[in-house]
Structures are given as C-alpha cells and as structure tokens.
Amino acid sequence: MGGQYRITGDKYPRMRPSRRRGRLVGVAVACGAVLGVAGWGTLQLIDVFTGGGGTASAAGTKAGCATKASPAATASPALLPKPAQITVNVFNATTRSGLAKTTADELKKRGFRIGEVGNAASQYDKKVTGTGVLLGPAASLNTSLPVLATQLTAAERRTDAARKGPAIDLIIGNRFTTLTGLPEATRELTALAAPKPTATTKKGC
C-alpha cells in the first residue's frame, strides 16, 4: 500500500486447526462407534429370537425352567358309558357249544346288560380265527367299544356305519378260552377313564 507497511522479524504466524473442529471430529467418531455396537447388538437379538443362532437354539429353555405334568383326560367321562349302560349280544362262532351262554353270564356279573345270546351269523360262523370280534355302530368306536374291550383285551374291534341301535356284538372266535381276568379287566377299565398327564412348562420360560 504505497510502502507504508513493512514486514520485520524472522517469525511468521503458524496456522493451527481450530479446537472446535477437533472436538466435532471426536464426537463424530464416538457416535459412529456407538451406532456400530448398537447395530451389532440388534442383529444378535434378531438372531436369537428368530432361532438363527445355533447356540441359542440349542439352549432351548432357560435354566431353572422345569417341565411339569398337568392332567388331561384322553376322553370325556361323559363319552365313556358305564357297563350297565352297554347292551352286549354274545354270539358263538366256534364249534364248541355253550361258550355264548357262559360268557354272557360272566359279563352280566360284571355289570353289562345282555341282549341276544346264540350262534354267530353265517358270515362269522367258524370264520373268526382270533380270540373274538367286537362289532358295534360307528358311534361306539370311542365310547362303548373300548369299555367292552377291557373285558376281552385281545379281541378285534370293528364298526359298521349301517348298523342300527347302540348294542354291541361280542363274537367268540376259535382262540377264545375265557374273558380277561376280573382284576386285570377292572384295572383296564379304571385306566381307560383316568386322566393322563400332558407336559407343560412354567410361565415365563
């Protein structure tokens, strides 16, 4: 400017970065690190809850979560009739005489109602090779048939959709000797109506 100003001395001003800019850079780096850790943690949580992690999936249940059994009936008591509510027709399909009557008498002693007693129809006569056949209407499959089956556990169970009436036929086969023993039959009948446990877990596990 017209030579009015002169630079003297051998020292010159040095340019230093602003402290404020340094702080902003530090804050940005810290925020990036926090976001990275948070993102990694989120991915891990998603992996655990979706079952992706092998270790987490193998753990399955929390430590200390015990499995308890709660009773659940396999069939409603209302669906299982008492022996006195079941009418049984006893037919002999063997060549041995008298089996139908003696079997019917024993069933009567055990509380069942007895209907017809005699020889089996031609379609079964001398054609039942096993212990016997229990034949009833379709509705008896999970009601009266299982109850009668406790008295002759080895008998085959069959249903006939065209059959009318609630009565059940007990058709004696060639391998029949006698009904299931009374103590065992009683245990089978009790177990049939007894509730069976179903596994459940504690809340919060």
Keywords, please?
5 helices; 7 strands; elongated; alpha/beta; two-stranded antiparallel sheet; 205 residues; 5-stranded mixed beta sheet
Would you write up a description of this structure?
- The protein has five helices and seven strands; from the N terminus they run ααββαββαββαβ.
- The chain is α/β, with parallel strands linked by helices.
- The strands form two sheets. It has a five-stranded mixed beta sheet with strand order 3-2-6-4-5.
- The radius of gyration is 42 Å and the shape is elongated.
Quick rundown:
This protein is an alpha/beta fold and 205 residues long. The protein has helices spanning 19-49, 54-59, 99-109, 144-149, 182-193; strands at 67-72, 87-92, 113-119, 132-137, 156-160, 168-172, 196-201.
- Rounded mean pLDDT score: 77
Query: What is the total tally of β strands?
Result: 7
What is the distance, rounded to the nearest whole angstrom, between the alpha carbons of the first and last residues?
Answer: 86 Å
Note the overall shape: elongated
Largest sheet: 5 strands, mixed
